[in-house]
Design brief:
The complex is a heterodimer of chains A (276) and B (294).
Chain A lengths: L3 H31 L18 H8 L9 H32 L5 H12 L7 H10 L6 H5 L6 H11 L4 H9 L4 H12 L1 H16 L3 H6 L8 H7 L8 H21 L1 H11 L2
Chain B lengths: L1 H35 L2 E2 L8 E2 L3 H8 L1 H34 L4 H9 L6 H11 L7 H8 L9 H28 L4 H9 L4 H12 L1 H16 L3 H6 L11 H11 L3 H32 L4
The chains are: A mainly alpha (276), B mainly alpha (294).
């Protein structure tokens, strides 16, 4: 017997499938076009034959055009995003622990200042920060991309509020056992908030991976550019090579997708706590 | 006495990374930025010319700044209603189905992972004159619209791109709000004979007030910081129709090499953002109070 409820549910799943198709269409399109013969790029959604020519061109160039260091760009993106994510999480965990679990004088002042920074539009600091980075000799280096982005006020705020729920008795008994504060942070506080850390780290990683403005400003050499910047700066002369540009976009998107899918279960768990 | 100093030492040493970072990358730039406001400086030359309020006067009169100012509100006018309808529909849909909720929510979140650089390339490709979608456009509009060359259409394209990217993310915020609505409310309403729309407007939307608040503040903040999509697709054109604050700041600082002027534009942007968010918050709070939602 097919009741009206079954019909409604089937209809809902049809809507879900349509919605997801729209959501993933650019992924599919990007992959298909990167594998298409060059005379079919942006002409057919599904190419009649598949070829790796675009990828080959990207890494080896052609007699007319020398290859840009795309592999290096992918490595640069990885170096910058991974180190910044680790630094942001570590710093946020340490500072968040101090602000939520240690009653030292000045704590409230620091916390209030953090709230102020969170609502302070960072754009005003863009040009002067660039000048400081230049003055410190970090222009056109990895440090110039990594250091100024190594702290996230949002992450500190998140950890400060989540560490409040770590039971005080657990911390006290660890102290009695002679554990240092750093040991308490990394052996007790962080493991307890694993799903939160997954969500925070994923959001930080994703936004660092697709940073464009800052990385474009502080780096000039091709060998230091992140993949995102490399693609963005190619838009003029390379627009006659759309196939390889799609191949580069696939290289840009795939790592984030893989990292996200690996942690998606933990992410789904943590996201409920984040928006509570 | 000894106990107190122990906490002080630990507290200050654990927060010291934050303090050092804030000094170098917040306090010093803040002061330096204020000094920049009153100068003409091209980022290289040893001399800086003091111009008083010259930068402010120029920025307030600039057609490019006017365009950025107006466009941001246009983008909000299109993007915010669209993204709220889209993300709320996704959340309601996921919330009402019996199985695979988690996986489906994750699928809708996937657009958030695509860098604006990559999605811009795709959009450029599918909107090109001979693209695989052109037969569809021809059937729908009788002609292929000049998507990125028409001032009105270009801004719509950019709004739809950011809607596509953020709907799944905002849907997660609505979903977590939906999960905290007590089922008994709906049961009571059903006994009184309430239909789908009545339940939506009398129960769901009022109970989602905190989620609406969060989404709205996020969306307004985001609208002021749009850069990648217009940078990749239109460069701010046609006729400044998609020019944004960040494009103008980037252009003035690094293409025109005018550090002082760019800082001035950034300050004006910050002030405008700040007041817009305050207005949105006040309106939302008043609206919430009037209905007893908070």
């Amino acid at each position: 017997m097919v009741g009206s409820k079954t019909w409604t549910n089937s209809f809902k799943y049809v809507l879900v499938i349509i919605g997801i198709s729209i959501a993933v269409f650019p992924y599919v399109y990007m992959v298909l076009q990167s594998l298409a013969p060059w005379n079919q790029v942006d002409r057919n959604i599904i190419p009649t034959t598949f070829t790796l020519k675009s990828y080959h061109w990207l890494f080896y160039g052609s007699p007319v055009v020398r290859a840009k260091p795309w592999g290096r760009a992918l490595l640069n993106s990885t170096i910058v995003s991974v180190s910044d994510t680790i630094l942001m999480v570590l710093m946020a965990a340490i500072v968040g622990y101090a602000l939520s679990k240690l009653r030292f004088r000045g704590r409230d002042t620091i916390y209030n200042f953090i709230l102020f920074q969170m609502f302070y539009p960072a754009i005003i600091l863009l040009v002067p920060t660039f000048l400081i980075v230049k003055a410190m000799g970090m222009y056109n280096t990895y440090w110039g991309m990594i250091i100024p982005k190594a702290m996230s006020i949002w992450a500190i705020f998140m950890y400060t509020s989540f560490f409040k729920s770590v039971p005080q008795e657990v911390i006290d008994s660890a102290r009695v056992d002679g554990a240092s504060e750093l040991r308490i942070i990394f052996r007790i506080a962080l493991p307890i908030s694993r799903s939160i850390t997954t969500v925070v780290a994923l959001f930080l990683f994703m936004s660092r991976w697709e940073e464009l403005l800052w990385d474009m400003m502080v780096v000039r050499s091709d060998t230091l550019r992140t993949l995102n910047v490399m693609i963005a700066t190619m838009k003029g002369p390379y627009s006659v090579y759309p196939g390889p540009m799609y191949a580069a976009s696939v290289l840009l998107t795939l790592p984030v997708l893989i990292v996200f899918l690996i942690f998606s279960k933990e992410f789904a768990k943590g996201i409920k706590l984040v928006f509570k | 006495m000894k106990k107190v100093s122990w906490v002080e030492v630990r507290g200050w040493s654990l927060t010291s990374p934050y303090l050092v970072f804030t000094l170098i990358f917040f306090i010093i730039p803040l002061v330096w930025g204020i000094a920049l406001l009153f100068t003409h400086w091209n980022l290289m030359s040893p001399t800086r010319e003091f111009v008083g309020l010259g930068n402010f006067i120029e920025a307030v009169k600039s057609a490019r700044v006017h365009a950025a100012f107006v466009n941001t509100y246009k983008i909000m006018g299109i993007f915010i209603p669209t993204v709220i309808v889209a993300s709320l529909s996704i959340a309601l849909l996921i919330n009402s189905i019996p199985r695979f909720k988690g996986v489906i929510a994750v699928c809708f979140f996937l657009p958030y992972l695509v860098s604006g650089v990559a999605s811009s390339l795709v959009v450029k490709g599918i909107l090109a004159y001979n693209s695989p979608l052109s037969p569809l456009f021809r059937a729908l509009f009788h002609d292929i619209p000049d998507w990125l060359g028409n001032p009105f259409l270009a801004i719509i394209v950019i709004c739809l791109m950011i809607t596509w990217k953020l709907s799944g993310y905002y849907a997660l915020i609505f979903l977590s709000g939906l999960s905290s609505i007590p089922k008994t409310l709906y049961e009571a309403a059903e006994i009184d004979g309430a239909g789908f729309w009545t339940k939506l407007f009398k129960i769901t939307i009022p109970m989602l007030y905190p989620a609406f608040y969060t989404v709205l503040i996020l969306a307004v903040g985001l609208s002021f910081g749009i850069f990648t999509e217009p940078y990749m697709l239109t460069g701010g054109g046609p006729q400044l129709a998609t020019h944004t604050w960040y494009l103008e700041i980037y252009y003035q600082a690094f293409s025109a090499g005018r550090a002082g002027y760019a800082s001035t534009v950034a300050l004006i942007n910050a002030v405008v953002t700040f007041f817009s968010i305050i207005v949105v918050r006040k309106v939302m709070e008043r609206w919430g109070k009037a209905h007893g939602w908070q």
